[in-house]
Design goal:
Layout: H1 7-21, H2 25-35, H3 49-62, H4 69-76, H5 81-93, H6 105-140, H7 147-176
Helix pairs in contact: 1-3, 1-5, 1-6, 3-4, 6-7
């Protein structure tokens, strides 16, 4: 049963596929995020539980020096065939952005940062829209809309704008240099 993949899901796949091969890029992405006053990359950036689990392994691979990072991640998946298949799928689907094929490290980082920002922007917009729909339903049912909903919309709208601004500045900045 082939399921429809959202643009956000595809962004998650690309980000993780590259980070599995090059976990050290997490630090560089975090530096760029901090430059724009944005939170560091975290498992919360991924909506799918398998992706969150793989991201945790990517982070853990940075804190060890026993094995190659990718081997560490794959070994960390344990005996779960579903997780091994997921990891395999991530690597296959990101072969064209394999860091071994893109030798320009700055270009690779730029691509990854743009994708992370697009992903965050997408999820912030989605969250804001969901709250707006809930509020609309409440109003149509004659219910009082809790103030938290307004705060939620403001928060996600602010985050969306910050991600969007960082994306514009970062894209402009990296193309200029």
């Amino acid at each position: 049963a082939a399921k429809m993949e959202t643009a956000a899901y595809k962004l998650e796949v690309i980000c993780l596929g590259v980070l599995m091969r090059r976990p050290d890029l997490v630090y560089r992405i975090d530096r760029v995020m901090q430059e724009y006053g944005l939170p560091r990359l975290s498992a919360g950036d991924f909506q799918h539980s398998e992706h969150q689990a793989i991201f945790h392994l990517v982070q853990d691979s940075l804190a060890q020096d026993v094995s190659e990072p990718l081997a560490f991640v794959l070994n960390g998946l344990g005996d779960s065939m579903a997780m091994m298949d997921k990891a395999d799928d991530l690597l296959q689907r990101t072969a064209e952005v394999d860091p071994a094929r893109i030798t320009d490290a700055d270009r690779l980082l730029g691509e990854l940062v743009r994708r992370v920002l697009n992903l965050r922007e997408n999820y912030a917009r989605e969250a804001s829209q969901n709250i707006q729909w809930i509020m609309q339903d409440a109003q149509e049912d004659g219910k009082v809309v809790p103030e938290e909903y307004m705060h939620g919309i403001k928060y996600y709208t602010d985050m969306y704008l910050r991600f969007h601004r960082a994306l514009n500045q970062y894209t402009h900045h990296t193309k200029m240099s």
